[in-house]
Amino acid sequence: MAANLPTHSQVQGGIGVTEPSTTHHDEHLHHDEHHDQHWLFKYVFSQDHKVIAKQFLITGIFWAIIGGTLSSLFRLQLGWPESTFEWLSPFLGKWIEAGKLNPEFYLALVTMHGTIMVFFVLTAGLSGTFSNFLIPLQIGARDMASGFMNMLSYWFFFLSSIIMFTSLFIETGPAAAGWTIYPPLSALPQAIPGSGLGMTLWLVSMALFIVSQLLGGVNYITTVINLRTRGMSMSKLPLTIWAFFLTAVLGLLSFPVLFSAALLLIFDRSFGTSFFLSDIYIAGQALNHQGGSPILFQHLFWFLGHPEVYIVIMPAMGMVSEILATNSRKPIFGYRAMIGSLLGISLLSFVVWAHHMFVTGMNPFLGSVFMFLTLIIAVPSAVKTFNWLATLWRGNIRFTTAMLFSIGFVSLFISGGLTGIILGNAAIDIQMHNTYFVVAHFHLVMGSSAFFGLFAGVYHWFPKMFGRMLDEKLGYIHFWLTFIGVYLVFMPMHYVGIAGFPRRYYAWTGFDSFSQFADLNKFISAAAILAFFGQFIFIFNFFYSIFRGRRATENPWNSTTLEWTTPVLPGHGNWPGEIPAVYRWPYDYSKPGAAEDFIPQNVPYSQTQSSNLPYERDTEE
Amino acid sequence: MIALGILLVLVLLLVVFGLLFRIQILTSIFSGSSAREIGTSNRVNAILFIIFMIVGGAAFAYSFIENYGKMNPPIASVHGFEMERLFWTTMIIIGIVFVLTHILLFVYSYKYQHKEGRRAYFFPHNNKIEIIWTVIPAIVMAGLVFAGWKEWTKITGPAPKDSVVLEVMGKQFNWLVRYPGRDQKLGVVNYRLIDATNEFGFDLSDKSGLDDFVAGEIHVPKGHPVLLKIRSRDVLHAVYMPHFRVQMYAVPGMPTKFWFTPTKTTDEMRAQLGNPKFNYELACNQICGRGHFAMKLNIVVDEPDDYVAWFAQQKSFSEQNPDVLANFQQKSDKLVEKENASAAAAVVTQAAKASL
Ligand code: HEM
Ligand SMILES: [Cu+2]
Ligand SMILES: [Cu+2]
User: Fold this and answer.
1) Which residues of A touch B123 (CB under 8 A)?
2) Interacting residues of A613 by C-beta distance below 8 A, sequence separation 6+
3) CB contact under 8 A, A280 and B191
4) Which pLDDT value is given to residue A403?
């Protein structure tokens, strides 16, 4: 925060200058005039989108460490199922029974790992951070449409985090029915202890989480639609903004369905209804529930669940597009096709959910329909990949750490996306469903790629967030360790999956068919734990550089988008003076005839006569 | 032991941080002054991508081939062969795309690394290429959908009339198996009638249930269609039989089904694999609680004659549990006699022979 000082005064200098075109920002400016805010409102209950973004980021990093630790624990069990884990009992207490991990706790670990990574890290941590940070800065707005709602969005997330975190420590253990919490397992404490208080806390936490998502989403959408600066038409938006915008739309339309599923589940659990339960005899007792359907829950869950995977990946796609273009010094190839494919993916992602349910007993005709729709979604995904490759072609590539992670993203997205074509084929999915093949698929295409997008974003926008640079050499080491590590973990997982090894197995030692992979499992576990430790390089780099990193310049990557026209550390209101107007698209890199190899969006065509294409001229002024 | 673990972690952390610090120092020496120039690291990273591609690709190919044998559970059902063909065809297609796109990705990264004085080629779009690379994947996908759809409708279509029928019921944490007996009809069950002896919840006032028998493992005849009726009595489970390429959820309150035709007896498979201990296994593949990972059942594929013999030996549930039967004030006299069981065998033998 030390680097804050010089620019801070600039902000105040400019704050009085209000131009007519931005009157809707007056409240923010007004707000900043009493700038001697209590620190509590400046850094904690802040309504500044940049502070909120950092809050999301740091909370996300916290959750990533927890999520990673949980996975290291269950990988230990999978890699060395015969060994004793007595040495873990100081940490895990009664969950170590006679040197063995409790099988129910194993399931709890898997469940919490999935929940934390999908929702708390890759949804809140990723989209929460970058939608918040970049939307106002890249569209040229002083802040979000509603700073207050934005603040609430974080604090709902915070509350939800506290509850989820608490659930890790309760007597009966956290939720343990898988991150997809299928009833009846999740509805009946008799079935597994985690479905007692742990599940209640899970549901309450997720309900709050959804509120946070909706508050954030409404805000992002409103901001993108209403607060774009002069000249920033939708067809001049950076792809990041398109991605955040569509992500928010997806979230807004699908999270309420998860909310309703959670609500009905709460009813079944606590008030004796039978939405999802029927004909159950458990723990020596026949229950009174009749007429419900566990499959109905799955429809509701995946109606969110599938869009959710795109909610996770689209922000990463947007940022990667931006970073690839900037560091190839080339326009993103096929800007319109990129937007089109984002739109296509968004639309299609609502009509493929039942590909998670091919073998649930659903009508086979529905299976056919969903197979058809699922394989269509591979087309826009392929288009995006080809466009990224074409962006690299004949570029002049600078390998910043962000660029490395973006290239890594493309690689992982290809590797994981391709196996989706196998799984989307209902006939093949009969064999592959719920095996490690699925685990490998989604860890590559969603887990790892989205993490790579997240890292790319942090390395790229860190200078604008903290006014300092991350250490590049540490970044390189971090990248190569992670890139190699991820492949070492998830490629072999396919083999295990093709052999039919089921996921969520505490041990495979009882089955002849699966026990031949002992060595491979050990290898995967070792690689996973090493790759996890590699992440501490990043964490060190991150916190070290916030305070001691090399000072950043305004536009360290010679980028064209508006956030780089702000001071090194933009204050509340973002631009000290007038908000720049926009004249051109965001990808004028290496334009023939131009003096520099980039022309920022706020440079009018009248100033770049030598490089203008025939149809390019300023429309106003 | 505890101390050892903690020590290990600490040492690891120390090593990592030591490394960090050294690097940190070196960095500051080398780049202290040069603000944002593109140095040798650019070249190093470009080369690393090529090395990654070659070494990674080779390692992947090697380990794939190495594990190929283990990867493929031997196939033992008719549709399994079709499914396998579909799987590997798709694998080859995506394998080609995987290799090509990765070569482009890494070679471009290397080839177009920053060079002083070079300018990138301003190439924002090209409609022709974009249409081509939208249409080609669309066509390939259409082909795959069509092939998959044909197979899927065949597999999920109605079971042949003469199928051997049996019922598998999932419970925490094992599988219960029931055969329809001589009359080829599964009797009515009701979850409210379940108790420690009547695990299925037989409703013995239904006559067709009187000859039903339960079994400790699944027996099916080779070469004959088998229809599995699947149910669960508590939480979700899934019947997963990797060798037969069979999977279907067991859902409480909603019976499901799956049919397949076994192609190799257990003995044949043992001979083929050179493993006298081999057994076909049924695994639970839907998280169901503490014992999920151990919810296993053996499946025996018999020659039709052996199957018939086995079938004939089984005693019906009602016969084995007369007290349960007595509890249902049955309206008719006891039907189940040994001779009936052998009549059932005759029916099955006929059906099996007809299908061979
Ligand atoms: C080429 C496009 C894709 C296709 C055709 C595809 C297809 C599928 C199918 C059919 C399944 C279900 C497999 C099963 O459970 O049997 C699946 C699982 C999954 N996919 Fe994809 N997928 C694609 C891309 C993606 C992307 C881009 C993401 C995330 C960013 C993703 C994330 C997931 C996740 C998280 C699961 C597993 C959920 C679970 O069961 O826990 N997929 N995919
Ligand atoms: Cu999906
Ligand atoms: Cu199970």
Assistant:
1) 330-331, 333, 390, 393-394
2) none
3) yes
4) 97
Give, in order, the Cα–Cα distances in Å from A294 to each of A267, A361, A562, B28: 14, 11, 49, 60
Rounded to whole angstroms, how far apart are CA atoms B212 and A286? Answer: 23
- What distance in Å separates the CA atoms of residue B234 and residue A289, rounded to the nearest whole number? 11
Token pair, residue B344, equals 């059932």
**How many other C-beta atoms can be found within 10 angstroms of the C-beta atom of residue A387?**
22
Q: Does B39 touch chain A (CB under 8 A)?
A: no
The Cα B318–Cα B330 span in angstroms is 11
Half-sphere exposure for B153 (CA within 13 Å, toward CB)? 10
Q: Which atom of ligand 1 is nearest to the CA of A439?
A: 37
Ligand 1, atom 12, lies closest to the CA of: A356
What is the per-residue DSSP string for B197-218? S-TT-B-TTSGGGTT-EEESSE
The ipTM of this complex is 0.90
Most confident of A85-94, B79-88, B119-128: B79-88
Q: Does B118 touch chain A (CB under 8 A)?
A: yes
The number of beta carbons lying within 10 Å of the beta carbon of residue B155 is: 22
- The residue of chain B nearest to residue A111, with distances taken between CA atoms, is B287
Q: Do B235 and A533 touch (CB under 8 A)?
A: no
Give the integer Cα–Cα distance in Å for A217 and A220. 5
**To 5 degrees, how large is the angle CA A122–CA A125–CA A131?**
100
Ligand 1 neighbourhood includes A442 CB (under 6 angstroms): yes
Higher pLDDT, B236 or A617: B236
**Widest distance between CA atoms in chain A:** 84
In chain A (621 residues long), the average pLDDT of successive 10-residue segments reads 36 37 43 59 84 95 96 92 82 82 93 96 95 96 93 96 96 94 94 95 96 96 95 94 97 95 95 94 92 95 95 96 96 95 95 95 94 93 95 94 97 96 96 96 95 97 95 93 96 94 88 82 93 93 91 93 94 90 93 90 90 80 48
Q: Report how far residue B266's alpha carbon sits from residue B298's, in angstroms, rounded to the nearest whole number.
A: 10
The amino acid occupying position B80 is: G
What secondary structure does DSSP assign to A109-136, as a single string? Answer: HHHHHHHIIIIIIIIIIIIIHHHHHHHH
Say whether residue A522 is in contact with chain B using an 8 A CB cutoff: no
Listed residue (A525, A465, A478) closest to A50, CA to CA: A465
Residue pair A154/A55 in contact (Cβ under 8 Å)? The answer is yes
CA B240/CA A430 separation, integer angstroms: 9
Q: What is the pTM of this model?
A: 0.90
User: C-alpha angle with apex A463: A58 to A55, nearest 5 degrees?
Assistant: 20
Q: Is A361 exposed, middle or buried (0-12, 13-18, 19+ CB in 10 A)?
A: buried
pLDDT of B179-188, one tens digit each?
A: 998 888 999 9
DSSP B187: P
Q: Answer yes or no: are the C-beta atoms of A306 and A206 closer than 8 Å.
A: no
A100: which strand partners? Answer: A97
Q: What is the rounded distance in angstroms from the CA atom of residue A371 to the CA atom of residue A380? A: 16
Which residue has tokens 């994947």? B137
User: Which residue carries 């739309």 as its tokens?
Assistant: A249
What does the pLDDT look like over B252-309, one tens digit per residue? 999 999 999 999 999 999 999 999 999 999 999 999 999 999 999 999 999 999 999 9
Contact B235/B288 with Cβ under 8 angstroms?
Answer: yes
Which tokens sit at B250? 């067991």
Query: Which ligand is in closest contact with the Cα of A380?
Result: 1
Structure tokens at A341: 């494919």
In 3D, which of A48, A47, A52 has the Cα closest to residue A129? A52
Pairing status of strand B226-232 against strand B164-171:
parallel
d(CA A307, CA A304): 6
| Residue owning tokens 């700038």 | A35
